[in-house]
Write a structure and sequence with these properties.
This protein has 11 helices and 5 strands. By secondary structure, it is of the alpha/beta class.
């Protein structure tokens, strides 16, 4: 039986209109009921540029391409709220779900939105084989946060983030790293920081070999052992030591 929310979602899909915004392996469809604060042509052009540049940026950082076009569906705020909830409609610009990125058409196309789009595009790339759920939540969200912050010009932890991590270490909340979502705000920070740690300790290429191996064949634990001879416990011990020596 289809739930009321599911029925609303089905209607939303039916009302999406494909437009010639196809380039760089990206396909964008638009909700007919979208309202615009400024002219539609400019909005569509700006959003298309953000989506395509996000696709290319994520592909370059990860070093692989999608096996199919990236699907992006732009919904009106009302339909976005019906699908993902009121809190998401007012606080989120986009969401990866069901093999596609769903964009809140009520979001402003600013620097925050650009970072969010890169974050969600990263999820699409990590799930390009339908195996993104094989990654622990801290890895999946951590890489997405890493690239989202990178798009906004942040390559390292802020002073505030360091303080939050040190507080978590002091209160024994830093580990274990969260394996399943949904994550708390601190959980996202754990993921982001742990990916920075692994980049510094192993290098990006070694990190990505672990990620690809997990997505393609092994569990994360086996991939970690095969690539660097670490257990998850050793990884977390190293992460705690790293946080303890950030300042």
């Amino acid at each position: 039986m289809t739930s009321p929310r599911g029925a609303t979602f089905a209607v939303a899909v039916a009302l999406l209109v494909a437009v010639p915004a196809r380039a760089s392996n990206v396909e964008i469809s638009w909700d007919r009921d979208l309202a615009f604060e400024w002219d539609r042509d400019n909005y569509e052009k700006t959003l298309g540029t953000i989506v395509r540049s996000s696709h290319d940026e994520v592909a370059a950082w990860l070093g692989w391409t999608l096996s199919r076009n990236l699907q992006v569906h732009v919904l009106s705020r009302a339909r976005y709220e019906a699908r993902f909830g009121t809190d998401a409609a007012w606080n989120r610009g986009a969401h990866y779900f069901g093999g596609a990125i769903w964009v809140n058409g009520g979001a402003r196309l600013d620097g925050w939105f650009e970072g969010m789009m890169v974050h969600e595009t990263t999820h699409a790339f990590l799930d390009h084989r339908g195996s993104g759920s094989r990654l622990p939540a801290w890895v999946n969200e951590g890489i997405a946060e890493r690239l989202g912050y990178r798009r906004r010009g942040q390559q390292a932890l802020t002073t505030t983030q360091v303080t939050q991590l040190e507080d978590g270490l002091e209160h024994r909340l830093l580990t274990p790293l969260p394996v399943r979502g949904p994550l708390s705000r601190f959980g996202y920070l754990q993921g982001f920081a742990s990916i920075l740690y692994l980049e510094q300790k192993l290098g990006k290429e070694q990190l990505l070999r672990i990620v690809k191996r997990t997505l393609e064949t092994d569990t994360f634990e086996r991939a970690l052992d095969a690539e660097v001879r670490w257990s998850v416990g050793q990884l977390e011990e190293g992460f705690r030591y790293w946080v303890d020596h950030l300042q």
